[in-house]
Amino acid sequence: MVEERRFKQTMNEIGRIGGTDRGMKRLAYSREERQATDYFITQCKAAGLSVRIDAAGNVIARRPGTCPELPAVGIGSHLDTVYEGGKYDGTIGVLAALEIVRDLNDRHIRTKHSIDLFAFACEESARFGFSQIGSKAMAGLIKQKDIASLTDKEGQNIQSVFADRGLEFSRLEEARLPKHALAAFMEMHIEQGPILEAKNTPIGVVRGIAAPTRFNICVKGHAAHSGSTPMNQRQDALIGAAEITIELEKEARREMEHGTVATVGDIEIVPGAMNVVPGETHLKVDIRGISRASKDRVVEFLYTFLDHLRATRHLEIGCTLLSDEIPVRMNADIIASIEKVCRWKKIKFIRMPSGAGHDTMNMAALCPVGMIFVPSIGGISHHPDEHTDLHDIMTGIEVLEAAVLERAVVESETKAGAQNTQ
């Protein structure tokens, strides 16, 4: 069995790296994130693993299998955080992978497939406004030119940040894993939402990861004096923006059964004075879901409704597509395997979508993937109050380990190891 005390100690030790009085701050490629990965590397080496850092800064630690020619089974997550973040987020997924290997060592269990542990670089978009750089590079989904101009809030270019970290940006594409390097990849993560806690369920079996379609919408009317302009003669850009917001919410609610959501997360009003009818507004819209068809219906509705507003309110509306990503489905066999483990261990679970993006969605370009969620207390994430009960974490690790062993194939277990499983 995995050791709760050992995991808690490891969690506490890494949780001190980047800790501030306003939460965690281990930004991608920062000194603090480097300290966290160095700590992880030290723990991996102590567990007898070989470790390498690829050209994107991903840490890959290997527990060799008895048939090294077979593709490895991968597990892991990320160690970087947002500004004023929490201690759990991706960290528990990285440490869960480490604890599984420690437990296999304790029980003297050998597997045919090697087991690779991953600590992905720059999963969070907090520093550069671009997420999952490490796993995207590993999956061959980005090239140097795609991110060469990225800068952080201090104006540091990503190329110089790479150099400070001891990485050569010009070699980024060398991080791509060879085809068939992995037999499967699995990630454990906090839910970052309220569903599991509300249902008193310790395990969420992720069926798919939502992908966003994002727009920048500019609504132009006519600025006018708020006191002297009659209501029936106004071209109020904010009213148009409000209608977009309300109608988009209604349409997304009609798609709730498919897990699709829509958000107007930012509105800028010009000129922004109390006594002036708004002449211009800028909206940032995020539509996401795990069903491409459902998401496309909401997007089509948006385009149609903008045409309606142009005609009825005589507004000039520009709509710029910022991104249009494809949702990722988890592998059906891995889903079935995780659910089988839960039934065998009599652990309550539900199937659910992931509204947030994760490294797993990029690893799907390389191999079959699966994902396990554990509850977030209060649904809180990316915040200093982020918390997941230790018992729930251990339950998640127990399920993940069994699913990994099914894929990695147990080759041998010594008598000492067999006694430890009793």
Written account of the structure:
The chain is α+β, with helices and mostly antiparallel strands and 422 residues long. It folds into two domains: 299 residues, Zn peptidases (Aminopeptidase, 3-Layer(aba) Sandwich); 114 residues, Alpha-Beta Plaits. Helices cover 35% and strands 25% of the residues. The chain is built from 13 helices and 19 strands. The strands form five sheets. Strands 3, 4, 5, 7, 8, 9, 16, 17 and 18 form a nine-stranded mixed sheet that branches. It has a four-stranded antiparallel sheet with strand order 12-14-10-15, with helices on one face. A two-stranded antiparallel ribbon has the order 1-2. Strand 3 and strand 4 form a beta hairpin. Helix 1 runs antiparallel to helix 3 and helix 8 runs antiparallel to helix 9. The longest helix has 22 residues. The C terminus is likely disordered.
The termini sit apart by 9 Å
CATH architecture of the largest domain: 3-Layer(aba) Sandwich
By oligomeric state, this entry counts as: single chain
**Largest sheet properties:** 9 strands, mixed
Helix content: 25-40%
Question: What general outline do the C-alpha atoms trace?
Answer: elongated
DSSP strand count: 19
What portion of the residues fall into strands of 2 or more residues?
A: 25-35%
CATH class of the largest domain: Alpha Beta
What structural class is derived from the secondary structure elements? alpha+beta
Parts with pLDDT < 50 across at least 5 consecutive residues: 415-422
Mean pLDDT: 95
Spatial extent as radius of gyration? 24 Å
The CATH topology of the largest domain corresponds to Aminopeptidase
In CATH, the homologous superfamily of the largest domain goes by the name: Zn peptidases
Pfam families: M20_dimer, Peptidase_M20
Domain Peptidase M20 dimerisation: 214-307
Protein name: Zn-dependent hydrolase
InterPro entries: Amidase_Cbmase, ArgE/DapE_CS, Bact_exopeptidase_dim_dom, Peptidase_M20, Peptidase_M20_dimer
